[in-house]
Specification:
α4 runs parallel beside α7, α5 packs across α7 and α7 runs antiparallel to α10. This protein has one domain: Orthogonal Bundle (MetI-like fold), CATH 1.10.3720.10. It is about 70% helix and about 0% strand. It has about 270 residues and is an all-alpha fold. It is found in: Cell membrane. InterPro entries: MetI-like, MetI-like_sf. It comes from Aquibacillus halophilus. It is a multi-pass membrane protein. This is ABC transporter permease subunit.
């Protein structure tokens, strides 16, 4: 009983955090089922009747084209970041050479570069490569700015992997390539899940590069496409909330899937003495 009383402040903090994080999501879903008039007259109340007209409206727009573009760009970018980030982290974490520390610091410096200062060079480079106004123009910048933090996460995680596993594999004649893919990479599940969640959320919500490097609605991503529901003098708030509700589903899905992978990865990566 005393233990439960001592834990009451923790439960109170958890409830407050739940309200702060869950209430906006509830308001978003609740508003998506209202008409524009009902939202203007009673924005905080429950809808009188749940209407799917806002979701039906999305079928008459390019919403699913924007959704598809964002999904393609985000998935491909995250896969590239995971593969190259893990490969770059292996020598930094497991091998000893003179440039080990300077290279690691170089990746950390990459985390400090303001994204907006690179817009003009990347814009000119994209035009010269003939990739302007294509979804493929977005993958390069997304991967480049996601690699530094990903390399830091992978490197720190690899350093915690017992060296006995590596030494046993080398005794059996395993080279560095096989050692990485057969031994090290399968143990990186928690780090892979962390990198995937972090970068997918940032890439999915990214706006400025999509605005600068694309020009047509066919190649626009979801953050750009939401502008379609903004008029010159009015804003269709319920339609925007419906679009945001559908747009947030991949984020929730990847979070719950990756969260389970983190727990499984921690159990699989443990070493029994």
């Amino acid at each position: 009983m005393i233990k439960k009383i001592r834990q009451m402040p923790l439960y109170l903090v958890a409830i407050i955090l739940l309200l702060f994080t869950g209430l906006p999501f509830f308001i978003m879903i609740n508003t998506s089922f209202k008409s524009q008039l009902e939202f203007m007259t009673s924005p905080w109340s429950l809808p009188d009747s749940f209407s799917f007209s806002n979701y039906a409206l999305l079928l008459d727009t390019n919403f699913f084209s924007y959704f598809k573009n964002s999904l393609i760009v985000s998935v491909i970018s995250v896969i590239i970041v995971i593969i190259f980030g893990a490969m770059a982290s292996y020598p930094l974490a497991r091998l000893k050479f003179k440039l080990n520390t300077p290279l690691f610091l170089l990746f950390m410096v990459g985390m400090m570069i303001p994204i907006h200062t690179t817009l003009i060079p990347i814009y000119l480079l994209t035009i010269n490569l003939g990739l302007y106004d294509t979804i493929w123009a977005l993958i390069g910048p997304y991967v480049a700015f996601a690699l530094p933090i990903s390399v830091v996460i992978f490197t720190q995680f690899m350093k915690e992997i017992p060296k006995e596993l590596e030494e046993s594999a080398k005794i059996d004649g395993c080279g560095h390539i096989r050692l990485f893919w057969r031994i090290i990479f399968p143990l990186l599940t928690p780090a892979v899940a962390t990198v995937a969640i972090y970068n997918f959320i940032h890439i999915w919500n990214e706006f400025i590069f999509a605005l600068v490097l694309t020009n047509s609605s066919e190649n626009a991503t979801l953050p750009l496409g939401l502008r379609e529901y903004y008029g010159e003098f009015t804003v269709n708030v319920p339609a925007i909330m419906a679009a945001l509700t559908l747009g947030s589903l991949p984020l929730l899905l990847i979070y719950f899937v990756a969260q389970e992978k983190i727990v499984k990865g921690l159990a699989a990566g443990s070493v029994k003495g």
